[in-house]
Specification:
heterotrimer; A mainly alpha (316); B alpha/beta (491); C mainly alpha (337); A: 316 residues; mainly alpha; two-stranded antiparallel sheet; 14 helices; 2 strands; globular; B: alpha/beta; six-stranded mixed beta sheet
Chain lengths: 316, 491, 337
């Protein structure tokens, strides 16, 4: 018992969950227990998008300093629009639409990798330039797009098991579990962790660096595509700026979740914890009647405090 | 007689079990150029770092003008005392101009017209030391050829504003200079000593040492073994002094198998810095091939070219017939994954072997790591412990385990025994021999002369190319030294 | 003596020239990009080639130029600032509220903002934190503060600021005059001042700068403070043009400033930056936005064109680099056979 407690304490993800539970408890106490369950349901549902995008970003960040995908918001906007247009509000086209969204995301990832490899520019600049073009495409493509998501998909997003547990959240938990396996138990996952510790050591140890980078960036972009489709379905249609919050949020959930920004150390459960924490934090501050400005500011201060406390990690 | 500018007495420095300096006495008088020679690991560079203030000695004292300055000796103190160092790694800012780099060195250069003054300061020195250098004060250092960068670096060490220049230490200063500039440098050194500046010149070109030095100091195994006037000294006498007392036992030298008619597993053509072709390194099944010569003369490059070719990339002049593994000597930056356990560090090269039903299997990983822990004697209670819990020698064993546990037929070793204790070394030598007998092939770069005894063939590198191919039967320390330092009457 | 050494290089500066040509090419790329787009606009719309036309065309360039310079100062030490947009928005909100109503307090707040920037630099240096995450957090802080200062769009910039930005100097339109002035000041601060050399050197080889006795803490704080100062000027000039503000008025400046600085020849590592290039890059980004309307294309593609220009210039730069690397390999002759 003591030993397992000790083990728990050493897990970096535990703190994001502790934080999430703490802010939830405060919120519930503030409203004297009313809607405690509803808060959890909402947190689980909204966290889905952050988790899907965050896991992709986590793989990218884990491949070492300087690796961040800045094209996620544009990607979400474009994929969401593509999904809605392909589905055209018909239930029969849901699968085709989802595949189209994943394909769109994959293509954006392909474009990112091409820029990184061919132009030999830092990934941040590559994904930034790509995002300009993707965002423009999304604007041109999605203009005047007033397609409602297929009813079945919207219903699915809202589908809850008895007790208010959203099915989509359960699926995302299963997905996260699968990603833990990918990270820890496949050659690909090991390669990501190896490259993140040192590109050079990995290369000399025979790790296929270029291939791993390719998979990582396309995986991240494909997940952003999926998230775009789901987000559009959830919010009643694609909108151009629906990806906007995910630029900063995707990085924030990764960092708060205990993934090392210096690379080589990733944490999947932490992404869930951080997503719940961020959502519940906002809920708590809302409940307290804190203004939206103060809310933003506190979020920023918390991110900096967490990184400063965990920080001092040497970037090699 | 006046006190020497700088005097070291009994300076000792150890890195763990390795003693880099074993009580060195050295004095440099004003106006004297001291040539310093010694083979790899003799302690030259450690001594330099102690003088420059970047390394603190474990014991001994540093006297400047007869005053004990050991306590509080630092980079700043050394600079204030007029001790300047030109290290082999360039310490210029590549994105700045020549004049701006001079400014970095001299805090006093500011205010209006600083760029002009800094430019004049460095250009005067350059013109003085390297006439016809072709460098402009406004040239960006990164755009200059490596030789010109070296000139700027050297000239900068001799510039004076606030602090005087009294002792300038030059570590292989001519390694990237052409012959005209090298001669100019030696002239400049002689000129500087006439002005009363003391110099320490480290070089592998014995002719240079004998031509420019007033005194020659020979180091071996962390001690000064000879300190004589340069006058009347011959190259042979210097080479003699550098060799270790214990000759490699002739009986222990291996009998070289007949190579004729056997296809090599790996081969790499070499070419020296002038573009002249050197001998080709070849290694066959079951062979241990040694790469010798002074550090940084192309051995690591050759290993990396072999490694790249083994990955399936096209590398000119290199052919490799089997998978290769690389064992780094610089464990921290090229070898270990610091965040991982011992087991993960071992198995990273062997994913196919530890897979079960498509996934990496922790039990198999553990078993594989455990097997190698036993075979290679990694001293740890548990292979699940972090790699950083191991001593340096045991970390190195993990790197050996990583390579040997893999499917690689060719093992490339980049001076892997650096800073490893004797016991560990002996265990690893036996292991290498056993693995070679099973048909693996080893290409082994080492800076330690004794290790070459384990090799079937020794290739000696100089300036990037192979200048000698010694089969085990012909191998002697003397021959390696002769070839690594210029051979008499070289072409 | 001359037994085992490379053949002497040709006397004079022949071999230096070979390395300087690609650098020169890289240096003129930003100017070239701007010239190409200007010429294209003039051909499409000759009337733009006038005082009034240029004034209109470059109307919004001044704040973008300042923001780009802010980003460039941060890039000098190899950091990236994701909070520029937030900072500029905050300054804009202060400028239409406190600065207009209580000038002393307003000025104090703006000075405090610069100090906060310097503190962020100190935090990053002392705790060795990744700048990208810290400035990410700061972007929340700045946006939050902006919302607190100005919860709903509105306010009015001080009259002197509006008058200043509406000033029509003789002969040269204000945006061009401002660009020239900013480029000159940036150039003096970073490229010709004696401490500027240290600041850039810190980006090129921090160890050598520290070894020569300079404080890296002071270097980083100085650069972050300079960036903060540029952010303040960006926010002020922005509200001078728009006269009112809202809390996310400069949201897109973060990405635009990175793009502009990179377009202008700044590199991510190695302290290679160029204030003049950054100004040119910012102007190009601004013009790219107006370019489409001259082509009678949908403004939907505005940022797409900005991205395409960025990629095009980076591609050209990669081409020049590859070419010069091949040339220098041939010259050196040290490569293996």
């Amino acid at each position: 018992m003591i030993a397992s407690l000790d083990w728990l304490r050493r897990q970096p993800w535990i703190w994001s969950f502790v934080g999430a539970i703490a802010v939830w408890a405060v919120t519930v106490a503030l409203v004297e227990g009313r809607g405690a369950g509803a808060t959890v349901t909402a947190a689980l549902t909204f966290s889905v998008f952050y988790v899907i995008v965050g896991i992709g970003q986590m793989f990218v960040v884990t491949t070492g300093p300087g690796n961040v995908d800045l094209s996620i918001p544009a990607n979400i906007a474009l994929s969401g629009a593509v999904a809605m247009k392909v589905m055209n509000g018909q239930d029969s086209l849901i699968v085709v639409g989802l595949v189209a969204a994943l394909g769109t995301g994959f293509c954006v990832g392909l474009f990112n990798v091409a820029l990184i490899r061919v132009l030999m520019i830092p990934p941040i600049i590559a994904t930034l330039s790509a995002s300009f073009i993707v965002q423009s495409t999304a604007i041109a493509y999605g203009r005047g797009l007033r397609v409602k998501p297929p009813a079945a998909l919207s219903d699915f997003m809202e589908w809850r098991l008895p007790g208010g547990i959203p099915v989509i959240a359960l699926l995302t938990i299963a997905f996260a579990a699968a990603m833990v396996v990918v990270l820890e138990r496949t050659a690909y996952g090991r390669s990501v962790l190896a490259i993140g510790q040192s590109d050079r050591v990995a290369r000399l140890a025979g790790v296929p660096v270029a291939r791993t980078r390719f998979v990582t960036y396309t995986l991240c972009a494909t997940l952003a595509g999926l998230s775009g489709a789901l987000l559009a379905a959830f919010s009643g249609g694609a909108s151009l700026d629906m990806g906007q919050p995910f630029l900063l949020a995707s990085i924030a959930v990764v960092v708060i979740g205990g993934t090392s920004i210096a690379g080589g150390k990733a944490n999947v459960p932490g992404v869930w914890g951080a997503a719940l924490f961020l959502f519940l934090l906002v809920t708590m501050l809302n409940t307290m009647g804190v203004s939206s400005g103060m809310r933003q500011m506190l979020t920023g201060v918390i991110i900096i405090a967490i990184i400063a406390l965990a920080g001092g990690e040497k970037t090699r | 007689m006046a006190d020497p500018t700088v005097r070291l007495t009994g300076v000792a420095k150890s890195y763990g079990a390795v003693r880099a300096l074993a009580g060195v006495d050295l004095a440099v008088d004003a106006g004297v150029c001291l040539g310093l020679v010694g083979h790899n690991g003799a302690g030259k560079s450690t001594l330099m770092h102690v003088l420059a203030g970047t390394l603190a000695p474990d014991s001994g004292s540093i006297l400047v003008d007869g005053v004990d300055r050991t306590a509080g000796w630092s980079v700043a103190a050394a600079h204030a005392a007029g001790v300047r160092c030109v290290f082999q790694e360039l310490s210029l800012c590549p994105n700045l101009t020549v004049a701006e780099n001079a400014r970095v060195f001299h805090p006093g250069l500011r205010g209006l017209g600083w760029k002009r003054r800094a430019g004049r300061l460095i250009m005067d020195r350059l013109d003085h030391m390297f006439p016809g250098h072709g460098i402009g004060a406004g040239d960006t250092v990164g755009d200059l050829s490596i030789g010109r960068r070296q000139m700027v670096e050297i000239a900068r060490a001799f510039t004076v504003t606030d602090a005087p220049a009294r002792l300038v230490i030059l570590d292989e200063p001519t390694s990237s200079l052409d012959s005209v500039a090298a001669d100019q440098l030696l002239d400049a050194v002689r000129h500087a000593t006439r002005e009363g500046i003391g110099c320490i010149l480290i070089s592998h070109l014995l002719g240079e040492i004998l031509a420019a030095g007033d005194r020659v100091v020979v180091m071996r195994d962390g001690s000064v073994v000879a300190d004589r006037p340069a006058e009347g000294l011959s190259r042979d006498a210097l080479v003699e002094a550098m060799g270790s007392v214990a000759r490699p036992d002739a009986g222990a030298a291996r009998q070289t198998a007949d190579r004729a008619g056997r296809a090599p597993m790996a081969s790499a053509a070499t070419r020296d810095r002038r573009g002249r072709e050197g001998l080709t390194v070849t290694a066959g099944k079951g062979e241990i091939v040694g790469l010798a010569g002074l550090a940084g003369h192309g051995q690591t490059d050759t290993l990396l070219r072999l490694f790249r070719a083994a990955e399936g990339r096209r590398v000119a002049g290199v052919s490799v017939e089997a998978p290769a593994a690389f064992i780094a000597g610089d464990r921290q930056t090229e070898g270990i994954f610091p965040l991982w356990s011992i087991a993960r560090n071992v198995t990273v090269r062997s994913f196919p072997a530890v897979r079960r039903r498509g996934l990496l299997d922790p039990d198999r990983e553990r078993a594989l790591a455990e097997e190698w822990r036993r075979r290679i004697g990694i001293r740890t209670p548990d292979v699940a412990n972090p790699i950083l819990s191991l001593s340096g020698g045991n970390q190195q064993k993990v790197l050996f385990a990583r390579a040997l546990a893999s499917e690689a037929e060719i093992v490339l070793m980049d001076d892997p025994m650096r800073g490893v204790d004797v016991g560990t070394k002996r265990e690893v030598y036996d292991l290498i021999r056993a693995e070679a007998d099973r048909g693996r092939c080893f290409v082994w770069y080492t800076t330690e002369m004794e290790e070459l005894v384990n090799c079937d063939h020794v290739y000696v590198f100089r300036d990037g190319g192979v200048v000698a191919d010694l089969p085990a039967s012909e191998f002697t320390e003397q021959k390696v030294l002769q070839s690594s330092f210029e051979a008499e009457g070289a072409a | 003596m001359s037994d085992s050494r490379p053949v002497p290089a040709l006397p004079g500066r022949a071999s230096l020239g070979a390395a300087a040509v690609p650098r020169l090419l890289r240096a003129i790329l930003p100017g070239l990009a701007l010239a190409v787009i200007l010429v294209a606009i003039f051909i499409l719309q000759p009337r733009a080639m006038s005082y009034f036309g240029l004034n209109l065309l470059l109307n919004l360039s001044i704040p973008i130029v300042f923001a780009t310079l802010a980003q460039m100062f941060i890039l000098t030490v190899g950091d990236l600032d994701l909070s520029v947009g937030g900072m500029v928005s905050f300054v804009a909100t202060v400028s239409v509220t406190y600065l207009a109503e209580q000038p002393v307090l307003g000025v104090a707040i703006l000075i405090g903002a610069i100090a906060l920037y310097a503190c962020v630099g100190a935090l990053i240096e002392l705790r060795r934190l990744p700048a990208i995450v810290v400035t990410l957090g700061m972007s929340f802080v700045w946006f939050g503060l902006a919302v607190l200062v100005l919860p709903s769009p509105g306010g009015r910039a001080p009259e002197w600021l509006i008058a200043l930005m509406a000033w029509k100097p003789p002969v040269i339109p204000l945006p061009i005059l401002a660009a020239l002035l900013i480029a000159a000041i940036g150039h003096i601060a970073l490229m010709t001042s004696s401490y500027g050399a240290i600041l850039r050197g810190a980006g090129g080889n921090a160890r050598s700068i520290a070894r020569a006795g300079w404080s890296m803490l002071r270097v980083r704080m100085t650069l972050y403070a300079l960036a903060g100062f540029m952010g303040v000027l960006s926010g002020l000039s922005l509200t001078g043009i728009t006269t009112s503000a809202d809390s996310n008025i400069a949201l897109r400046y973060t990405l635009i400033s990175i793009a502009g600085a990179i377009l202008g020849g700044s590199e991510f590592v190695g302290g290679r930056v160029s204030p003049i290039g950054a100004v040119l890059g910012a102007l190009t980004m601004t013009l790219a936005a107006s370019f489409l309307s001259f082509l009678r294309l949908s403004p939907d593609w505005q940022i797409g064109v900005q991205g395409a220009i960025l990629i095009l210039v980076l591609a050209l730069r990669a081409l020049i680099n590859a070419w010069s690397a091949r040339a220098s390999r041939r010259r050196a002759g040290t490569a293996a056979p």
